[in-house]
Amino acid sequence: MQVQHVAYKAKKILNTHKHADSWFWDKYSAHPYIGCEHGCEYCYSREKKYSRYENPNDFSKIIKIKENAPELLRKKLAKVPKDIIIVGDYQPVEEKTELSRKMLQVCLDYKFPVSLLEKSPLILRDIDLIEQINTQSWASVTFSIITTKDDKTKNLFEPKTPSTSSRFSAIKKFSNKGILAGVAFMPILPFIYDDDDNLEAVVKATAEHGGKFVLAGGLTLASTQKEHYMKLLAEHFPELIPKYQRLYGDNYGPECSYSGELGKKVSRLCKKYGLMDRMPRYVPNGPLAINKQVSEKLQNKLYRMELDCTSQYKIWAYRKAAWTLEELTESVSEIYAQKGRNGLESLKDVGKSLATEIEFVLKEISKNGEHML
Ligand code: SF4
């Protein structure tokens, strides 16, 4: 079936997340298309919960184009507080519509920092605008890359994506312009791309191309997306079916001992090649900047706790405390300066031990000269 492009006037363009994302730190997202022609076989968009198509597999065959996306975005950004936005989509149709470029122009006009997550070097067409946004506030470009291995296997899982080498070259070009660039090493396909050689090759190539971070994430499998992926696996890697059954059972994600170890391996490799395993957060100056800085540190810590398979109860305690800081309308360092640890303990979802942790983080930030207490 040929890919169909269906243009329409959208009613909504801007998604505002309840809490800033802890991978890319975006508070907003805005995309000009529904569906994705790249058609990655593992894509979670095939999952019924996320799909806007009756047949979830149509998401790569019928691409809906929000032709009024830039105008809608202009109206919305005029009214919302400035924060990081994930914007655009550089799948093939973008070459013709240039909607992502126009949306970037809106972000530049309204001085919004942007985070871009892409698989296509077509984004290089707009490097001029991204550079201007980076000079004005901040821009970051993350390329999704799951292997450096031969394109034959890559093409099986990502049939219509540009080559891995073209994505690495794009990282180099952004990095040479002083734009923060890195890799989303997601999803690391179990028993296919999780071997030590592939892990090291992706991290090493990121460093060699001027990338600054690698974010590691595993494969989730659910409903229609699981059926689709397992069908492909049965056809090309039948020997892996029992291994997947053991690893996933009826669960959405692999068992923690597996994903934690995978994340730790990538973290160790990042250290070896001088990279970060988390994306540094852009926090503009202002009286509440410290709240976001402390929240970032708590969320980074809870990432490590996840890798260590710490109890979900403890992880959620950190997450909720981080969210409290995100939403706080007073400076946490002011509260601490005036009321000490008692002031911290009075915050929503912050008990004794988290107050101690926040106190420690505040002192650490102050010691590193990131903020004065
Ligand atoms: S590029 Fe991203 S959104 Fe598009 S199919 Fe692949 S994983 Fe899904």
Write a short abstract of this structure.
This protein is α/β, with parallel strands linked by helices and 373 residues long. 46% of the residues lie in helices and 13% in strands.
Polypeptide structure, described:
The protein has 373 residues and is α/β, with parallel strands linked by helices. It has 2 domains: 269 residues, Aldolase class I (TIM Barrel); 79 residues, Orthogonal Bundle (DNA polymerase, domain 1), CATH 1.10.150. It has 14 helices and 10 strands. It has a 7-stranded mixed β-sheet with strand order 2-3-6-7-8-9-10. Helix 7 runs parallel beside helix 10 and helix 11 packs across helix 14. The chain is globular, with a radius of gyration of 21 Å. The mean pLDDT is 95.
Task: Please describe the topology of this protein.
Blueprint: E1 4-8, E2 14-16, E3 28-30, E4 33-34, E5 62-66, H1 69-77, E6 85-87, H2 94-97, H3 99-109, E7 114-118, H4 127-136, E8 139-144, H5 151-157, H6 164-176, E9 180-188, H7 196-208, E10 213-218, H8 223-236, H9 241-248, H10 256-272, H11 289-307, H12 312-327, H13 332-345, H14 352-367
Parallel strand pairs: 1-5, 3-6, 6-7, 7-8, 8-9, 9-10
Antiparallel strand pairs: 2-3, 4-5
Iron/sulfur cluster (SF4) binds at residues 36, 38-40, 43, 45, 119.
Could you list some keywords that capture this structure?
373 residues, 10 strands, TIM Barrel, 3-stranded mixed β-sheet, DNA polymerase, domain 1, 7-stranded mixed β-sheet
